[in-house]
Amino acid sequence: MSETLRVLEDFLEGNVLVQLKGGRMLKGILEAYDNHLNVLLRQAQEIEGNRVRELGTVLVRGDNVIVISPAK
Fold first, then answer.
1. Is the Cβ–Cβ distance between 60 and 36 less than 8 Å?
2. What are the pLDDT digits (tens) for 3-59?
3. Could you give the CA distance from residue 61 to residue 72 in angstroms, rounded to a whole number?
4. pTM for this one?
5. In what order do the strands lie in the sheet with 51-60?
6. Domain tally for the chain?
7. Backbone torsions φ then ψ of 71, nearest 5 degrees
8. Nearest CA-CA partner of 30 in 9, 50, 1
9. Is the separation of the CB atoms in 18 and 68 below 8 Å?
10. Which residues does residue 69 pair with via DSSP β-bridges, in sequence order?
């Protein structure tokens, strides 16, 4: 298992911020991920400035992910 995947293991069932290509930012509970960094977020929100849009459960393709970090 790569170091990246070991770190993500610690984030499981926790709140994360996911920065995507194109500047989009998602926040949600990390439910699952795979070796390609495809991530499944529960209670996901899209954050754009001060605006928050509720998305529910989303699957994000790993090739769109730039950064995944813990969130409060």
1. no
2. 878 889 999 999 999 999 999 999 999 999 999 999 999 999 999 999 999 999 999
3. 23
4. 0.91
5. 51-60, 39-48, 25-33, 15-20, 65-70
6. 1
7. -130, 160
8. 9
9. yes
10. 17
Provide the CATH number for the domain around residue 34.
Answer: 2.30.30.100
State the virtual CA torsion across 46, 23, 32, 42 in degrees, nearest 10.
Answer: 0
The tokens of 34 are what?
Answer: 């795979």
Quote the domain boundaries for residue 28. 3-70
DSSP letter string over 12-59? TTSEEEEEEGGG-EEEEEEEEE-TT--EEEEEEEEEETTEEEEEEEEE
Residue type, 37: L
